């Protein structure tokens, strides 16, 4: 950002907040993604075993529900959960074509168009048009790969906010 100021260039950001991101990871989709990402089958089997047979019940003011199987979500507080989520998010970014696109900003000769930490994603571009294109690509791939089942009736499909800002 300092260099952008120095050279009087605009930088546009979009902060994407996926609704309940860690809770939305579909286990079956996760195993497929891990395989596609080159994770060895024996490690995927270990993870499947870790997540197999998870059940829950819900206590309400009217009593307790029957037990049901859990097929979504990475375990809260588990040291593996951020890594599993990051692989899921990486899959979405790759399928959105963000590695191939020339949109973004140049840093040390490298094109950077997304920054991620846990479930927070920031898209970066040099123009509002580039940024809108990145947002649409990520949104479409997120719907296909991830959030469609949870928020299919929601107009923004789990992407809660887009903040476009120029830096002068």
Features of the shown structure:
168 residues; alpha+beta; Alpha-Beta Plaits; elongated; disordered C terminus; 5 helices; 3-stranded antiparallel sheet; two-stranded antiparallel sheet
The CATH class assignment of the domain at 2-25 and 74-151 is: Alpha Beta
The main sheet orders its strands as 1-9-8
Q: In the CATH hierarchy, what is the architecture of the domain at 2-25 and 74-151 at level 2?
A: 2-Layer Sandwich
Structural class by secondary-structure content: alpha+beta
Distance between the termini: 10 Å
**Element-level helix/strand string:** HEHHEEEEHEEEEH
The residue ranges in which pLDDT falls below 50 over 5 or more consecutive positions are 148-168
Mean pLDDT: 80
Report the biggest beta sheet as strand number plus sense, adding barrel if it closes: 3 strands, antiparallel
Walkthrough of the structure:
The protein has a domain of 102 residues: Reverse transcriptase/Diguanylate cyclase domain (Alpha-Beta Plaits, 2-Layer Sandwich), CATH 3.30.70. The strands form four sheets. Strands 1-9-8 form a three-stranded antiparallel sheet. The longest helix is centred in the C-terminal third of the chain and has 24 residues. The protein contains five helices and nine strands. By secondary structure, the protein is of the alpha+beta class.
């Amino acid at each position: 950002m300092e260099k952008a100021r120095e050279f009087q260039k605009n930088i546009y950001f979009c902060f994407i907040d996926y609704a309940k991101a860690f809770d939305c990871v579909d286990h079956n989709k996760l195993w497929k993604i891990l395989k596609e990402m080159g994770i060895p089958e024996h490690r995927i089997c270990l993870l499947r075993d870790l997540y197999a047979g998870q059940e829950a019940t819900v206590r309400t003011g009217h009593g307790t529900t029957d037990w049901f199987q859990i097929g979504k979500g990475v375990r809260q507080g588990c040291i593996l959960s951020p890594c599993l989520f990051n692989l899921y998010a990486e899959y979405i970014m790759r399928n959105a074509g963000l590695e191939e696109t020339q949109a973004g900003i140049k840093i040390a000769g490298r094109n950077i168009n997304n920054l991620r930490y846990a479930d927070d994603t920031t898209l970066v571009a040099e123009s509002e048009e580039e940024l809108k294109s990145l947002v649409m690509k990520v949104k479409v791939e997120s719907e296909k790969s991830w959030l469609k089942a949870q928020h299919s009736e929601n107009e923004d499909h789990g992407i809660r906010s887009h903040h476009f800002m120029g830096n002068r």
